[in-house]
Amino acid sequence: MAKEQPETETSESPAPQPSRKKKLLIIGIAALLILALAGGATALYFKFFGNTEPGQDEEEVAAAQEEKKKKEEKKKTPPVFAKLDTFTVNLAQETGDQYLQVAITLELEDSLADAALKENMPKIRDSIIRLLGNKKASELTTTEGKDELAWELRDALNLLLEPDQPAPVRGKRRQEIIGPVLAVLFTDFIIQ
Questions:
Q1: What is the pLDDT of residues 123-147, one digit of tens each?
Q2: Of 136, 82, 91, which Cα lies nearest the Cα of 111?
Q3: Who contacts 27 (Cβ-Cβ below 8 Å, separation ≥6)?
Q4: Which helix (H) or strand (E) holds 103?
Q5: How many Å apart are CA 178 and CA 159, to the nearest integer?
Q6: Dist. CA 104–CA 122, nearest whole Å
Q7: Residue 67's CB: how many other CB atoms inside 10 A?
Q8: What would the CATH number be for the domain defined by 80-191?
Q9: Taking 60 as the threshold, does the pLDDT of residue 189 lie above it?
Q10: Within its chain, how far is the Cα of 95 from the centroid?
């Protein structure tokens, strides 16, 4: 009989290799983890460093934050209104004698501004009368004309109450309010 050769297993059982799906799953999880870390790092960067623009230093940032806090505090306090006596003035002539009778209420930033307003009332009344007297009836009949008058009065009164503030550019409405008078409100407005 032929010699039987014992069967020898020359091939050892290979270590199980991860399937292709498992490799893709691991790569996908790693990519998501990297993206999450990058997103978190970006969020932290903008939270702590993103508020400053190039060229701003820490003092400017601190001043801006302080101003923001003041504005938030002002929003919490109720407005202070000061009612002025009725004004009757001759308007600048166009077609004949015309008169303006107007009642004005001022919105002020706080009660300290109300005290300053009362101390300077003769100057304030004079300033208002002069400004109203230079207007024509045709300028005041439109909503835009009344709005422009309110802005001019507001800026003139703020300049009177706080003379160290910069004067507004003539013919242009100042966007930000600088001074204690926040708004000029007309409660009566009659042109004859």
A1: 999 999 999 999 999 999 999 999 9
A2: 82
A3: none
A4: strand 99-108
A5: 9
A6: 15
A7: 10
A8: 3.30.479.30
A9: yes
A10: 43
